[in-house]
Amino acid sequence: MKDLFDKGVISLNIILIGPPGAGKGTQASLIANKYNLPFVSSGDLFREHRKLGTKLGLLAEKYMNQGELVPDHVTIDMVMNWLDQNKGGSSGFLLDGFPRTVQQATSLEKALGNANPVGPAVYINVDKDELLRRLTGRRVCMRCQISFHIHSNPPLIQDQCDKCSKPLAQREDDNFDAVEARLDAYRRNTEPLVAYYDHQNVLIEIDGNETIRQVSKDIVESLDCFN
Description:
By secondary structure, this protein is of the alpha/beta class. The protein has a domain at 2-38 and 87-126 and 185-225: Rossmann fold, CATH 3.40.50.300. The protein is built from 10 helices and 8 strands. It has helices at 2-6, 24-35, 42-52, 55-65, 72-86, 102-112, 128-136, 176-189, 192-199, 212-225, and strands spanning 12-17, 39-41, 92-96, 121-125, 138-141, 147-149, 168-169, 203-207. α2 (24-35) packs across α10.
C-alpha cells in the first residue's frame, strides 16, 4: 500500500478520533509529517477565522457569544474552505477532532462527495483511569504559562516553575469534576463515531495507553496496511 500511496494512487483522508487526553494533537503532527499531509483541528479553524474576521468567523462568534453551539454547516464550510486552500497536490488530509458527531460525519461526507471518501478513521482508545491521570495531572505556571505534569513531566522542585520559580496551579478545566464532565460529553457525542466508521470498514483502533512513540509506531504500521 505504501508504494501506491507514494505514487498518489491512494488517498489518506484521515479522521483522528479519541477522548480528551488521548494525545490526538501530538499524533496528528507526527502523522502529518510522516505522510506529508495537511492537517488542522476544528479549534484551530475557529481561532483562525475569528482572528481574521472572516464571514464564517463572525458567524461562528455570533453563536458562541450567545452561548449556542456553532451549527454544523458553519463548521463544515470552514473545513471545506481549509481543504480548498491547503490540500493542493497532496494525496489526502488529516482532521484532528472533527467530526465530533455522527451528524457532522455524514455532513462532511456529503460535502466531500463520493470521489473523495473519508478513511481511515484512527481511533486512539485510552482507559478512563489513564485519561483521568493525564488530564488532572497538568500544572501550569500562571506567569510563564509553561505546562508541567506531576507524573510524566514534573518540575525540578515540587509545585514550582523551573523557569521563574513561581508557584504552579491547576487550571479549573483540569480539576476532577471538570474532566469527568468533558469525558461524559465525549462519550455521549463523539464515541458513537467509533461504531459509525467501524460499520464502514474504515476504522483503525489503536491502544492509546502506550507511550507516545509506541502509539505513533502502531498508527503508522496500521496506515501502511490500510486499503
